[in-house]
Amino acid sequence: MSGVLNVTDLKTGYGKQEIVHGISITAQPGHITCVFGPNGSGKSTVIKGIAGLLPPWAGKITLGDADLTGLPVHEMVRKGIVMMPQGGGVFPRFSVMENLRMGGYSLKDTREVDDRIETLIADYPNLQRRRNVAAGSLSGGEQMMVAIARALVPNPAFVMLDEPSAGLSPALVNETMDRVLALRERGVGVIMIEQNIREALPVADSVYIFAGGKNKFSGTRDDIRSDEHLMSIYMGGTVSE
Ligand SMILES: Nc1ncnc2c1ncn2[C@@H]1O[C@H](COP(=O)(O)OP(=O)(O)OP(=O)(O)O)[C@@H](O)[C@H]1O
Ligand SMILES: [Mg+2]
């Protein structure tokens, strides 16, 4: 199943505290949709809401013609929507392979999951070599690669990446962005939260800025580049080519 992922007027939060006050996003299949915004603006909370980790308090989530509002995580995964949490969320005591297998936990066909993992890991020689070591003994960058690969195990239509380049060296940030571009080439839709705006903006097909749990901007990368006010308020200055 695929189609456009539409999030309309989503409200959600923690306990009784509403954090996301009616946010809307449209993500095209096979496009890279980037989400920027200050710390604490609700970026992670929004994608947790879309992924089914937090229940929607109001609003609607649709994929193509299908209404996915309120489905729990494992159902969302089956519908093709997967997230990589902020920090990766790799289990340090489990091996690389065990971490990757967790990415397929909601799928019934374990043979297909194993095949998927072999295909994915072939793209990551460092992980291939260390498939049986504890994930916690890998470098931060390698752990992030495990997290990204794990999110891809269910063969998602849309993958949501929460700051995939956080804490990585400049070379690894570039590699991460190249891998995100490769996903687009394969037709996977990407929703990417990033702080590395300079590196993320060039790969973005469309851009959202959140502030205070609300939409502040949506448009193309060129729209945002030409809006100096937005650049200075939400992005700490001008971004050069
Ligand atoms: N598990 C939680 N329980 C209670 N409040 C939370 C929880 N997680 C986040 N919050 C609060 O929700 C607000 C938005 O947090 P969120 O993590 O969505 O922000 P963010 O835009 O992703 O920020 P950052 O750029 O720092 O990752 C913050 O005020 C935060 O304190
Ligand atoms: Mg966050």
TrEMBL record:
PANTHER family: HIGH-AFFINITY BRANCHED-CHAIN AMINO ACID TRANSPORT ATP-BINDING PROTEIN LIVF
InterPro entries found in the cross-reference section: AAA+_ATPase (IPR003593), ABC_transporter-like_ATP-bd (IPR003439), ABC_transporter-like_CS (IPR017871), BCAA_Transport_ATP-bd_LivF (IPR052156), P-loop_NTPase (IPR027417)
GO biological process: L-amino acid transport
Any Pfam family hit: ABC_tran
Location of the ABC transporter domain: 5-237
PROSITE patterns: ABC_TRANSPORTER_1 (PS00211), ABC_TRANSPORTER_2 (PS50893)
Molecular functions (GO terms): ATP binding; ATP hydrolysis activity; branched-chain amino acid transmembrane transporter activity
Protein's name in the database: ABC transporter domain-containing protein
Keywords recorded for this protein, A-Z: Amino-acid transport, ATP-binding, Nucleotide-binding, Transport
Family named by the database record: Belongs to the ABC transporter superfamily.
